Amino acid sequence: MENEDQPRLRSVVSYVKRGGRMTVGQQRAWEEHWPRLGRTVSELPSGPVDFTAWFGREAPVMLEIGSGMGETTSQLAAAAPELNYVAVEVYDPGLGQLMLRAEKLGVTNLRLMHGDAVVLLTSHVPPGTLSGVRLFFPDPWPKKRHHKRRIVQPEFVALIASRLAPGGTFHMATDWEHYAEQMLEVCSAEPALRNRYANEPDGWAPRPEWRPVTKFEQRADREGRVSHDLIFEKR
Question: What InterPro entries does UniProt report for this protein, alphabetically (predicted)?
């Protein structure tokens, strides 16, 4: 039964399940580290994930949705050892590469989830428990007929808001102007959230110095697109 703490699962997913072989290094990282660092969303037992037990400590939980090939994620986790950092991604080689990067940086506060972030949030993360959610450069689905596939929709934002602790943040970034405007509109309409930078020009957040420049940002800059950050917090 649906209720305010159990939003309905969307019927249109926001990602394409890409194939692709792992490199030898990614496969080695998977074999060595996945049993300890990773879990598959579809194979989780019913109920909440016990992050305290999994990390072996109690600390604020930061969830990053769509870690890609892990370059940014590994650096962000390394820079914030006080966080229990959880990355959820659907692309197997990306998770393998993230484990390689984390190994190289000596990261110990990172855990990985393979699968759909909406399922994870809906079925395995209790309301009011996350210190933050990060969504950096999600698939923009630029064609108008594909806009319904964009992950930032009212139902998704309501789900994020329900899982954030009071004062917790939802931080987004995109280099597609129209998508940035959609993010701003949808999040501003969610009553449980407030724009931390509502008084800034157009409501955009200043680009944080701590967020590494991604390959998407570099390409956007070459192509003349401006990246926007948005930071909303739980009321």
Answer: SAM-dependent_MTases_sf (IPR029063), tRNA_(Gua-N-7)_MeTrfase_Trmb (IPR003358), tRNA_methyltr_TrmB_bact (IPR055361)
- Among residues 5, 139, 221, 229, the one annotated as catalytic is 139
The model's pLDDT over 1-35, given as tens digits with 9 standing for 90+, comes to 334 444 444 456 655 555 578 999 999 999 999 99
Is residue 119 within 8 A of residue 96, CB to CB? The reply is: no
What's the DSSP call for residue 169? E
Name the 3-class secondary structure at 171: strand
**Orientation angle between helical segments 92-105 and 71-79, nearest 10 degrees:** 40
Spatial separation of the C-alpha atoms in residues 134 and 187, rounded to whole Å = 14
pLDDT (tens digit, 9 = 90+) per residue, 81-92?
A: 999 999 999 999
Identify whether 92 is a catalytic site residue.
Answer: no
- Tokens matching residue 194: 């407030």
- 214 marked among binding-site residues: yes
Asked whether residue 221 is marked as a ligand-binding residue, the answer is no
The ranges of the chain with pLDDT < 70 are 1-19
Q: Is 52 annotated as a binding residue?
A: no
* Total-model pTM: 0.91
Q: Known binder of ligand: residue 89?
A: yes
